[in-house]
Design a protein that fits this description.
alpha+beta, five-stranded antiparallel beta sheet, 9 helices, 31% helix, disordered N terminus
Length: 400
């Protein structure tokens, strides 16, 4: 309050201080001037000290009196510093604006498109959906290999298609491949199978077909002559294995339906040319790439009718029901040339004259690439390309 103050400091008003100073000074001179019998000098010191103390108190009181009473009261009311808080502390400037929470992305883009995967046109809508798992235990969604067999170089990859991996429930990878060699590494052996989407256990049929085909071809080569490979016997025995799998599951053979294409590539001759035998049943296909030509060339397999408004996916034969429809033939690979066995998930895109997918793969696979790069290419994104994709490429030579 500004009207009065009951604290001791208020006694130090001007007239009180002046009176005290005069009384102490007079008393000190009297004391010093009077004679003392004992310890006179000590009494004098104390008297002078008293004068100094009173003078100092009067001076300090004058400075305090110069502060307006209202301001002194306001200072008195302010709390002292908290002993638990440092007297000097960092004072933050204006806080940065709080970041707004990210808006939820639409389901389509919940999984970002892989920038490593080549994309053609606007791509396929299903490519952006997340990968889901099938209800039952199946083979992996991705498989890949790289190998050398003598003077031959091999890359292989299989990727579940966008249309299968985002279904509810998701479908298994129905493609399958196997690669192998003879004991002397003079021959490389390849098998690529594509299970029919309409068959509930087609992934099992495809896996059985590719695995058995490589095993049986090795037996044929090592027991006879490369020039006398028997496609009818081969596909007949593969069909028996698939039928046995169907019987073990208690289902009809149509539930394991698959198509199959196989190849045996011999070591190059003295001129550097390699000879390859190809056998097939169904719409998987074989393509060759001459290093001087900018496109993969169709070489074997069931060619689809592309003259009509809709490309038919109907296959002329399948395993295990029609092994007798399998056919075979030979192709020659010049030095640096390549042979590719692919399922229709890739073959259909290569055969489409309206797109540039074939040209891209002819340039990308002109020579061997690492298996990781090869697998990313097989997972390409293109409109209406939703099926599983599998490719096994054999280069005549180890490449640069």
């Amino acid at each position: 309050m500004s009207g009065g103050d009951s604290r001791p400091d208020s006694l130090m008003d001007g007239w009180v201080r002046a009176g005290l100073l005069v009384a102490v000074t007079v008393g000190a001179f009297i004391e010093v001037g009077s004679p003392h019998r004992h310890y006179g000098w000590l009494v004098d010191v104390f008297a002078l000290a008293a004068v100094g103390v009173v003078g100092a108190a009067a001076a300090l009181g004058s400075e305090l009196a110069a502060v307006p009473a209202g301001q002194r009261n306001r200072l008195d009311r302010e709390p002292g510093p908290d002993a638990t808080v440092p007297a000097c502390r960092y004072v933050a400037g204006p806080s940065a604006p709080t970041a707004q929470p990210a808006k939820p992305r639409p389901f389509l883009r919940e999984r970002p498109t892989d920038p490593i995967v080549p994309r053609f046109g606007d791509g396929a809508r299903a490519q952006g959906f997340p990968w889901l798992l099938p209800e039952r235990t199946v083979q992996n969604g991705i498989a890949a290999d790289e190998a050398t067999v003598g003077a031959l170089t091999i890359r292989a990859a299989s990727v579940v298609g966008p249309g299968h991996r985002c279904d509810q429930p998701a479908g298994p990878r129905q493609d399958s491949y196997r690669i192998g060699r003879t004991r002397d590494s003079r021959y490389a052996i390849v098998a690529v199978a594509d299970g029919l989407s309409s068959a509930a256990w087609s992934d099992t049929g495809a896996t059985t077909a590719s695995s058995q085909a490589v095993t049986l071809l090795r037996e044929q080569i090592e027991a006879g002559d490369f020039d006398r490979l028997d496609v009818k016997e081969l596909y007949g025995r593969v069909a028996e294995s698939i039928a046995g799998q169907a019987a073990g599951r208690g289902v009809g053979t149509a539930h394991l339906a698959t198509v199959l294409i196989t190849a045996v590539i011999a070591e190059p001759d003295a001129s550097g040319t390699a000879r390859a035998w190809i056998g097939w049943l169904g719409d998987s296909s074989a393509w060759t790439l001459d290093p001087r030509v900018p496109r993969w060339q169709f070489s074997a397999g069931q060619a689809k009718d592309r003259e009509g408004p809709v490309v038919s996916n109907e296959v002329a034969g399948r395993l295990p029901d029609t092994p007798h429809l399998a056919v075979d033939g030979y192709v020659m690979l010049a030095p640096g040339a390549a042979l590719a066995l692919v399922t229709d998930g890739i073959g259909d895109a290569w055969a489409d004259p309206a797109g540039n997918v074939n040209e891209y793969f002819a340039n990308a696979w002109r020579s061997p690439v690492p298996a990781t790069r090869f697998t990313a290419d097989v997972g390409f994104d293109a409109p209406q390309c939703l099926d599983d994709r599998t490719a096994v490429v054999v280069w005549n030579g180890r490449g640069a």
